[in-house]
Write a structure and sequence with these properties.
By secondary structure, the protein is an alpha/beta fold. It is 53% helix and 15% strand.
Length: 198
């Protein structure tokens, strides 16, 4: 029986770092952030039409999406935010369900799925094990500002819209802290996951 392990955590906590490490180790990982990133980088006509109709025509120019503009609009307009989250969630869910189905068919022992808004959307009961990455807000802000194209104002709004570390601790089976170096984080992650991956 395939065990489906879900990785979650706030923006800048280290989900992508852990996912990339697990893939290097030969594990299969479905990354929600990666899927969404591809939706924006190589948008299909349906997604472009959706954005123009529901967000603003100004966010699309010559078939390219200005993600920063999208973020600015949705974090100042709750209705637009709800619409785009619903649309993207549906696309990601279809991709993730297909990934899980395919690997259960081939009887893989473990698969990982990375879901940033797992707890916010109350999806944790769907998976065998929840792994939460926890990191201090100051550190997460620094990482996210370095790696993502967001302003400090938008980033604060994103963090505010996500669940608290207290909630993550109470609703997860495994907690991995990521407040030091990447090397320390990977060491802690391997130590935390070693028992379940035997």
């Amino acid at each position: 029986m395939t065990k489906v392990i879900v990785i979650t955590g706030g923006i800048g906590s280290g989900k992508t770092t852990l996912s990339e490490h697990l893939k290097k180790k030969g594990f299969l990982v479905h990354e929600s952030d990666g899927f969404v990133s591809n939706m924006y980088k190589s948008p299909n006509k349906h997604f472009i039409c959706f954005l123009c109709k529901n967000i603003s025509q100004d966010v699309v120019k010559k078939g390219r999406i200005n993600k920063k503009k999208v973020a600015e609009i949705i974090f100042s307009n709750d209705k637009a935010k709800e619409k785009i989250e619903k649309y993207i969630h549906k696309q990601v869910q279809t991709s993730r369900d297909n990934f899980i189905k395919k690997n259960k068919k081939t009887k893989k022992k473990f698969v990982f799925v990375d879901i940033p808004l797992l707890l916010e959307n109350k999806l944790e009961k769907k998976f065998d094990l929840v792994v939460s990455i926890i990191s201090k807000k100051k550190i997460r802000m620094k990482r996210a500002l370095k790696n993502k194209n967001f302003s400090k104002h938008i980033l604060n709004k994103i963090i505010k819209s996500q669940t608290t570390d207290k909630e993550r601790r109470s609703r997860s089976q495994i907690i991995i802290n990521n407040n030091k170096t990447k090397k320390d984080f990977i060491f802690s992650a391997e130590k935390s996951l070693i028992k379940i991956l035997k």
